[in-house]
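Side project, low priority. Logging it here so it doesn't get lost.
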Amino acid sequence: MSRSNPELAPSAASSKLFTLQSPSGGGTRHFLLHLPTTHNPSTPAPLILAFHGKDQKAAQFEAQTQLSDPKFSDWAIVAYPQGINLLLPLHREQWTGDPTSPLRSSIDDLAFTTDLLDYLISHYTIDLMRIYALGFSNGGGLAYLLAGSPALSARFAAFAIASGAIYKDAALKEPLFGKPLPSRTPIPILHFHGDKDPVIHYDGVGTPDAPTYGVEKWLEGWAKWNGVEGEGEREELYESEVERRVWKKEGKEVAVRWLLRRFAHGWPSTRKQDDDGQRLGPVRFDGAVVVVRWCWCGGVGAVVVVRWWWCGGLEGGF
């Protein structure tokens, strides 16, 4: 693994493109890196890895999440990895976990994530207790694979997913999602999903390209893997445009589901985006605000106390 373009060192003002070698992750890989304006090389900083959706570019996801905007996140280093385009000249970037993805023995995005983490930790002062992953669609599926990985789950404090693509093993070239094996519990998960999603159906029934797990059953299962039984707690937000459901273990939130009514497939935000026709947005909150408040107020280490309501009050929040 090596950085082949040191002249593109990131500045605090904007993200920069980097290249690294990941032998098991497909060879030459790319990522954007953003440093906050408050970055101090001598002070350990939190790190967020943000995985775009299928057919997206890292730069597009950076713009959609707004995590490089100081008014949303000016405290964390954010890396936006780029998926591999397997269908040149078409733009079909994707991650491990899609039905069309190659076997992990050929291209393994979990190995790429490992190499990326190792690189960032060796070149920047990272707070190892505050490393987070978020992803959209196919990138959200990869985030779930990281959360269920015996090796990688130990390196992340928590995970956030939007419109997560969680395919049943029968739809894939090899089993991936069916038996998560996280190295610890709890593994806190936040999942945004629209009930009108035409790409990854909310209930998992009739998803166009291949069978997927329904969001409710998946998160109920995730709660059980974390030792939590029952229905959890439900709360209506934004005049019932959103239902928030949470499962807790010993007072700590291990799974949180945001059901966005009349929302489709996309990253939730209050501003217009280039995919509004697909996502049926905007919505009345910013996903970046929720995720950043979760990371900032969620505690650190193997036991993460996620106090969404305790950290309220930010404009655009909840």
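Brief comment: The helical segments are 58-65, 109-123, 138-147, 215-225, 276-279, 287-297.
Revisit when time allows.
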